[in-house]
Specification:
Blueprint (H helix, E strand, L loop, with lengths): L1 E6 L2 E8 L6 E5 L13 H6 L3 E5 L8 E2 L10 H14 L5 E6 L1 H12 L4 E7 L16 H6 L1 H5 L3 H9 L1 H12 L7 H8 L7 H11 L11 H7 L9 E6 L21 E6 L6 H4 L1 H10 L2
Parallel strand pairs: 3-4, 3-6, 6-7, 7-8, 8-9
Antiparallel strand pairs: 1-2, 2-4, 2-5
Helix pairs in contact: 2-3
Length: 293
Amino acid sequence: MVQRIDAGVLDVAYNDSGPANGRPVVLLHGFPYDAHAYDEVVPLLVAAGRRVVVPYLRGYGPTTFRAPDAPRSGQQASLAHDLLALVEALDLDRVVLGGFDWGGRAACIMAALWPERVRGLVTCGGYNTLDVAGSARPAPPVVEHALWYQYYFHGERGRAGLDQHRYDFCKLLWGLWSPQWRFDEATYAQTAASFDNPDFVDVVVHSYRHRFALVPGDPAVEATEQRLADRPSISVPTISLHGGDNGVAPVSTPERNRHLFTGEFERFVLPGIGHNVPQEAPREFAEAILTLR
């Protein structure tokens, strides 16, 4: 059952499962997914005695902004502050964080900047914070090709395309990014309902413009964005999971930015798994979370 809580600038919708006194775990989805990405992970963690909180990120599902004039920012610092505000609002102590895509980025940032609140981290794709200052440097052509959707959002045609075709657009990305995952229409439709959030398009477009320094960020989180520009290290115990068949972020060898993990660290590549690791490999994801005691 979806619950709600005021946390920072958001009225956050979230699922809360397991014993209230269980070790807390917060799981975060990315774009274009939602809390249902963890539907098969949560029961495994609850069975092991964990309390599991799975929020809908800003711009997704029932989560809303508390103020009509709040910036619909999708920048990384905003997502991190949303996570911190949720942990504080729920009075969670020493959480294990797990996430992928946008959610993995928020989890990495919290682990880097507020490690006293974090027991451990499961991140999909390694060190997941964005180097906004370096975004003008071109990547290898094969990487640039996979990021076509980001460049599409840089123009108003892309904004209109996402707005008018959000169901089909995001379904296309699911297929491209997880080429071996045979999800059915009902599974996709369950998540796609979250894209009807009235702030979805604004948040998504701002995210993919801000990361390329094309638009200003939210002044309220500018100090955090400046801290991220220094590429802070992550000292908490971390497990990095990589989908071996990730269609948008191919596995790099060796671990990208390995030097930025200064605590205990393990890395696993999951053959045949694409971008949406928790929904494609729920048992492996849950086992990684449970390893972080």
